[in-house]
Amino acid sequence: MLGAPLPELLPSAFTAADAAAAGVARSRLRAADLGHPFHGIYVVTDARSPVLRPEDEIIDRAAIANLRLGDGAFFSHLTAAVLWGVPLPPGPLLMHDDLDVGVLHPARPPRGRGVRGHRVQPEHVRLTLHPEHRLPVPTPASTWAMLGRVLRHPYDLVAVADALVSDRRYGMAAPLATRAQLEAAVFTKRRVGVCALREALTQVQPRVASRTETWTRLVIVDAGLPEPLINHWVVDGDGRCIACVDLAYPRWKVAVEYEGSHHLVDAAQWAADIRRYEGLAAEGWCVIRVTSEELFRYPERLVLRVRRAIRAAV
């Protein structure tokens, strides 16, 4: 049952204290047009924009939860990673029912509906205010270091670090972190997951544009193949740029390209891909096109294709 109209001065998300100050009765807060996602916080359900991605939902909930975030508390771990926009595997995102909220030791970790509390050692984190979302978070480097205990596959730790130091992230004026900052965040005492983080650091590369590029490169290199060049520009005999390929072996004219779903559903992208591949073929390049199924389910097939292409060019 819907209640009486709320005062116009109340925003679409508000606290119980805000409602009381505006003269709203407690019984009105139980009406069907109000959601109650966190303790003491209410949301006008028909005023919220539709959420299309798990990341959008997490960001939306974090902005609401911030209304009652205690002094010194901050969003941490996976929640902070989402706020920084780094690439994460889909599993943790889809299961991210609770927001990660941290406090510095010896403060007591927060508890309550929709919140997963963490107590963090002060030497393990540097805090900042997110420049876009205006929410308290660890710095990008500190956020990455927190993921050492969260992300199960080592390639995903590398993918997040690649994204932080990359100059290829679209819309970013500069990388979110430097390699030196990642190293400083890792080399602190008694950090959970430190071995995995240190190993990931040895494989971090700049100029990477996506999680799948990181995975493709690591699958190839860990199989014993040479390290490919990343986002390499191929030029023709006249010095004109033909294409920028994800991974390249210029010596053997072998390119490895990951084909995301947008390559299939976007007609303009598909046409551009055809022109690129024709241009590469005209210059003698062999293009190995990689799908999600091959990369994540049958990586040995990818390795075999790359190895055969190199052998054929020798």
From TrEMBL:
**What Pfam family does this protein match (any one)?**
DUF559
Give the DUF559 domain ranges: 245-309
Q: Which InterPro entries match?
A: DUF559, Restrct_endonuc-II-like
| SUPFAM superfamilies given in the database record | Restriction endonuclease-like (SSF52980)
Q: Look up the domain of life of the source.
A: Bacteria
Coiled-coil segments: none
- This chain belongs to the protein called DUF559 domain-containing protein
> Could you tell me which species this protein originates from?
Microbacterium pullorum
